[in-house]
Design brief:
Blueprint: E1 4-11, H1 13-26, E2 30-38, E3 41-48, H2 50-64, E4 71-78, H3 83-88, H4 95-98
Antiparallel strand pairs: 1-3, 1-4, 2-3
Helix pairs in contact: 1-2
């Protein structure tokens, strides 16, 4: 079974920390990582069942509104990513996050 991927990209680190915290508190998802894109942009990535990832991303987007200057530049959910993506992009479960995996 494929596990969904949810991503939120912001400008500024405080906004992405707030989003990540809200995302893992709002739904049964696992935070698998973040990427510094450049020019102040940061993306956070979560994995889980589709409905949980949808709830998680929605909560993350809402929470960014509470951050002074928080700005969403992009967000997206891939319900069933191809397994090849895990070997090329930074969306894999690593040993560091395995203890937080909820399914």
């Amino acid at each position: 079974m494929s596990i969904a991927v949810g991503m939120i990209e912001t400008i500024g680190f405080p906004a992405i920390v707030e989003a990540a915290d809200s995302m893992v508190k709002a739904a049964r998802v696992t935070l698998v990582g973040y990427e510094k894109i450049g020019s102040g942009r940061v993306t956070v990535i979560v994995r889980g069942d589709v409905s949980e990832v949808q709830a998680s991303v929605a909560a993350g987007l809402e929470s960014i509104k509470r951050v002074n200057g928080g700005q969403v530049t992009s967000h997206h959910i891939i319900a069933r990513p191809h397994e090849n993506l895990e070997y090329v992009l930074p969306i894999r479960y690593t040993d560091a996050v395995e203890q937080f995996r909820s399914y």
